[in-house]
Amino acid sequence: MELNVIGEGTALLKCSYCNYFNNKTTNHPTCLWNMSEVERALMDLLNGRPSSIPLTRYDICRKPAGSGNPSILGQNLCIIVAAVVFNASGEVVLIQEAKKSCRGHWYYPAGRLEPNETLVEGVKREFEEETGLTFEPTTLVNVESYLVAGYWMRFTFTGYLTGGVLKTPDRADKESLQAGWFSLDQIKNSAQNNISFRSSDFIPIIEKTFSYLMKPLHGRHQCLLPVLQPHKHMCMRIILVKTTVDKEVQVLLNMEDTPHFPTIKDAWQADDSLYRLSMDAFKSKNYHGTKHILCVEHIGRPHRSADGVCLNVLTNVQTNRELVNNKYMWHTVTHPEVRRLVAERLEWGMGIACP
């Protein structure tokens, strides 16, 4: 068994506007020819980068007008960062909880993001505190979002070990009692193995990550790490595409001010955001295909004014509704590489599902 964990020294340099991997950074001139500003912004998002069209307005607000309070970590926002890390034998590291409410139970390394932390900084800190090991995140593998007395989000990463010593019971502290390596079989048969979990909600995430790492590189979604972009509010940028009867690929734009991809303020869940967009643009509910995250934007500092998260979500409309709001229009995508990447990112399993 061989897990395809992208590790230290792996060459991942590629052209900024396509997926051509090479041993030097370059932009292929053919990738830039005849590419409109909208297509270039779409290409950026398809490659995990923030849109080159700046966010200057929110098109739809989930909360009533006047509810303009920012998202503040520790007040109306809780962000959990977690890690699924395997060793060369296909075992995953778990930790034994030290907290009074779940003391002695096992779980995967996870904890609350602290003020002024980026998501990557937070997960590296939590992983080391709880396991004694250090790791380098290579990609997100799972994103969850709920409304529980405010916003609650959990970002799960995977990556490769870089050092440290596995925590043993003699090094127990308030973070954890110890850490250990477990096979998937041990986890699935925890009762027979006398293993008690804090919760079983992490098991599907571990299975998903294992499946992802077992795939060849060309058969998995692109590595996706958060980009450092400040956001005051929780929001969702929707990249809604459709294919016409003539096989044209079109993307929905909001034309107010500068043409841009529709953005929903105080968004927390894809289905809710898409319903609001459908009612605003089409005055009727639409049906959508896969909903994949293209880019996660967050920086976390300064605390209280940049704690928000923006999820950039790609989906396709499966009903041919007529636009009834003249603020919106369909833009035809003509660049062949953009069209190819849109189709690829929409394939099942070729993206991180948006909650």
From TrEMBL:
Residues 76-204 form the Nudix hydrolase domain. Keywords: Hydrolase. GO terms for molecular function: 8-oxo-dGDP phosphatase activity; 8-oxo-GDP phosphatase activity. It comes from the Eukaryota. Signal peptide: none annotated. InterPro entries: NUDIX_hydrolase-like_dom_sf (IPR015797), NUDIX_hydrolase_CS (IPR020084), NUDIX_hydrolase_dom (IPR000086). It holds the Pfam family NUDIX. PANTHER family: 8-OXO-DGDP PHOSPHATASE NUDT18, MUTT/NUDIX HYDROLASE. This is 8-oxo-dGDP phosphatase NUDT18. It comes from Holothuria leucospilota.
